[in-house]
Amino acid sequence: MVKRENISHYERNMIKLSDWERKTGIGFLKKIGVKKNQKILDFGCNAGNYTIPAAIIVGKNGSVFAIDENDHNFAQIADKAKLLELDNITTIKTTGELNFDFVDNFFDFVMLYDVLHYFNPQRRKFLYKEIYRILQIDAILSIHPKHIIGNYPLMELKNVTLNELIREIGNARFTYCEKICSKLSHDDHLEDGCILNFTK
């Protein structure tokens, strides 16, 4: 038996989040629209807390593209994918660029979870335009609007209200559909939060 003091930080996080990644997160992503055989983009994937359950849902005929700038995050995703025998995840390293090397109308579902606060209004506008291009008609853009007013305001979203953010995305030609609240994975823990879904 492994003594607790010999368990790495990553292993502790896996133990803490395993229920999310293997069960709870799967149920949640299904609830908000992720389906078998879909092509998913997880932009700002971090350690894959949404990448992994999405990959489980879409199955071997689906695919998940996970974008981030941190190689350590990709290593964690690779370890989790190996553990769960997933081979449908493609990781893409970014240096901050917001234009994507994907054809038009490629994705069924795009996740922007806890990432918009890094971008100023002009860059968010560019990001929405590019996501609109790569999403199929009636496909879903899903947002976790962390760090707006009332939700640990931070960086570029610290003075933005939820309604203002919804209007901003609506101005980028997306249609607001629903707000779904639940326990969500955030960094290395679970917390109460809400997801906003939009369609193209």
Q: Can you walk me through this structure?
A:
- With 200 residues, this protein is of the alpha/beta class.
- The chain has one domain (4-199): 3-Layer(aba) Sandwich (Rossmann fold), CATH 3.40.50.150.
- The protein is built from five helices and seven strands.
- The chain has helices at residues 9-32, 51-58, 71-83, 121-134, 162-170, and strands spanning 39-43, 63-68, 89-93, 107-113, 135-144, 175-186, 189-199.
- Helix 1 crosses helix 2.
- The chain is globular, with a radius of gyration of 16 Å.
- Mean pLDDT is 90; it is low at 1-5 and 12-17.
Number of helices: 5
CATH architectural type: 3-Layer(aba) Sandwich
Radius of gyration: 16 Å
Describe the biggest sheet? 7 strands, mixed
For this entry, what is the oligomeric state of its chains?
A: single chain
Strand content: 25-35%
In terms of per-residue confidence, which ranges show pLDDT below 50 for 5 or more consecutive residues?
1-5, 12-17
Structural class: alpha/beta
Sheet with most strands: strand arrangement: 3-2-1-4-5-7-6
Terminal CA distance reads 51 Å
Q: Could you tell me the mean pLDDT?
A: 90
| Overall helicity | 25-40%
What's the structural domain tally?
A: 1
Order of helices and strands: HEHEHEEHEHEE
What gross morphology would you assign? globular
Would you give the CATH topology? Rossmann fold
What's the CATH class label? Alpha Beta
CATH superfamily: Vaccinia Virus protein VP39
Give the beta-strand count. 7
